[in-house]
Amino acid sequence: MKLSNMLISTLREVPAEAEIPSHQLMLRAGMMRKMASGVYNFMPSGIRVLKKIENIVREEMDNTGAQEFLASALLPAELWMESGRWEAMGEEMFRLKDRNDRDFCLGPTHEEVFTDIARNEIKSYKQLPLNLYQIQTKYRDERRPRFGVMRSREFIMKDAYSFDKDQNGLDVSYMKMYEAYTNIFKKCSLDCSAVEADSGAMGGSGSAEFMVKSEVGEDEVVFCSCCNYAANMEKAPAISEYQAEETYLELKKTHTPEVRSVEELVKFFNATEKKFAKTLIYKADGKVIAVMVRGDRAVNEIKVINAIGGAIEFEMANVETVKNATSAEVGFAGPVGLKADILLVDEEVSKMYNFIIGANETGFHYENVNYGRDFTGKIGDFRNVTEGDKCPKCQGTLTIARGVEVGHIFKLGTKYSASMGATFIDENGEDKPLEMGCYGIGINRTMAAIIEQHHDENGITWPLAVAPYQAIVVPVVTKDEEQMRVAEELYCKLKQIGVEVLMDDRNERVGVKFKDSDLIGIPMRITVGKKISEGKVEFKLRTNSENEIISIENVVDRVKSEFAKNNLSL
Ligand code: ATP
Ligand code: MG
């Protein structure tokens, strides 16, 4: 493609609304434009990248034996009412009515649809296992669309649904997807880890999130510095740090006027945060839940919700509720004499000695408190892992990094098949619900994540496998006939062998041309200038600051060698 014919407009300024590099660069490089909040149009160069990612995904899915499908995006409400998600999806679902006043939605995900397809099409164990996937547009009215296509309201997802006759079959299908996902993200040059995830509202018995390490990530991921352990913060079990044994001292109530926060307590008592246990009060479906963790720890709300058997509404208690439960002002909560429906005590607290807690009385704390003697509760793991904690798998220490979730795989089991009657006849003639798995990848989010990991101060540095174009030929002076002739010849030769190549034939200064090709992130640049008189041109990799001077006849081989280096064929 010649740049003079291409619809491309690059921006020198950083658009004010874009906070993160991928969003800024996708706009600046002219890959997409905003239509509305969380809704984007993809420009010719942007769509090329999306298609490349889609094709990598398609190839890996096909390799596992999964079959491509295309379901509709416009879905009747009845299907969602059957599963109970018409209500549960709440405001995230885009809803609409047809001319006959029938309810529809724009699909945010397709478990119901594929369960419906399965119950109509699958009759016998002989048709199993089966995995159907699609690459299709999804709609979610996100509360906070942001960061461009990282969290948009319309996006392309690859979603796959597996159907097996039993749990062993599901395990196999799940592992196949796990491996395919690992290959996909590797081919996209993403530094990505599969982490154990909380399957939360989706139910089921196993789930992993594929997380790309990035500062702009919304999730926290826990990594071991020694082994390959990685887990979502929501799920990562915390290993208690035990304190040296002490003999129990006598419980003492101490006047602590205006001393409420752990920080203030540390000063007042001249002790470390580890000497305190804080009591946090939550409201879960109308019940008062108190949770105790050591002074320097944070409560893990997901663990708490799981421990109380789930909750539809869960939030920090308001001042009123705290005052009622503690009979004191906020800041003096403690387990002794607390009016709570459930008291959860982090295991670490139960192993502390002579510690300090709020006394449920304004202006007072207890000293020398000991679990068992002074109070009891339900002991468990209710805290977040922190940097430096022990790894649950080995003796290594844990670190915490931010990550972007690009893919997610779930074992659904019979959650949908049982409730929607998707059954099959097994070998013994019995009717059984299908064992299901579901597997998603955000295509646009993957594109943004690649940019987060592949950019520099001049623009995007696309990995060859997903670049919109792989090479660009830049004649320095467009008016120079000889330069244009050589450039045209190289352009045609590269095109002929299958390289996706651009030629910057615009009548622009060469500096402008370089800036644009760097911003758009073309991996290989061939500059045709004065040196053609010696039969030479410049070859430059986008990720390399050095120019190579090579002879014109070697350009094709040099380009080919980059394909070989990246395990890509031409
Ligand atoms: P998140 O927690 O980020 O909202 P999710 O758990 O809702 O993600 P899934 O329902 O598992 O996401 O969807 C599968 C994949 O679709 C995600 O891993 C992600 O890559 C992508 N995805 C989900 N929501 C969005 C969105 N609003 N914009 C872009 N991609 C998305
Ligand atoms: Mg979501």
From TrEMBL:
Annotated Gene3D superfamilies: Anticodon-binding domain (3.40.50.800), Bira Bifunctional Protein, Domain 2 (3.30.930.10)
Major subcellular site: cytoplasm
Family matches, as InterPro entries: aa-tRNA-synt_IIb, aa-tRNA-synth_II, aa-tRNA-synth_II/BPL/LPL, Anticodon-bd, Anticodon-bd_dom_sf, Pro-tRNA-ligase_IIa, Pro-tRNA-synth_IIa_bac-type, Pro-tRNA-Synthase_IIa_type1
Record's subcellular location: Cytoplasm
EC code(s) of this entry: 6.1.1.15
MF term (GO), any: proline-tRNA ligase activity
Domain of life: Bacteria
Keyword hit for rRNA processing: no
Every Aminoacyl-transfer RNA synthetases class-II family profile domain range: 38-463
Reaction catalysed by this enzyme: tRNA(Pro) + L-proline + ATP = L-prolyl-tRNA(Pro) + AMP + diphosphate
UniProt keyword annotation of Magnesium present: no
Keyword list, A-Z: Aminoacyl-tRNA synthetase, ATP-binding, Cytoplasm, Ligase, Nucleotide-binding, Protein biosynthesis
The record's note on its domains: Consists of three domains: the N-terminal catalytic domain, the editing domain and the C-terminal anticodon-binding domain.
Subunit structure of this chain's protein: Homodimer.
Purpose: Catalyzes the attachment of proline to tRNA(Pro) in a two-step reaction: proline is first activated by ATP to form Pro-AMP and then transferred to the acceptor end of tRNA(Pro). As ProRS can inadvertently accommodate and process non-cognate amino acids such as alanine and cysteine, to avoid such errors it has two additional distinct editing activities against alanine. One activity is designated as 'pretransfer' editing and involves the tRNA(Pro)-independent hydrolysis of activated Ala-AMP.
Recorded family membership: Belongs to the class-II aminoacyl-tRNA synthetase family. ProS type 1 subfamily.
NCBIfam families: PRK09194.1, proS_fam_II
Descriptive protein name: Proline--tRNA ligase
Organism: Clostridium punense
Highest classification ranks of the organism: Bacteria, Bacillati, Bacillota, Clostridia, Eubacteriales
Gene for this chain: proS
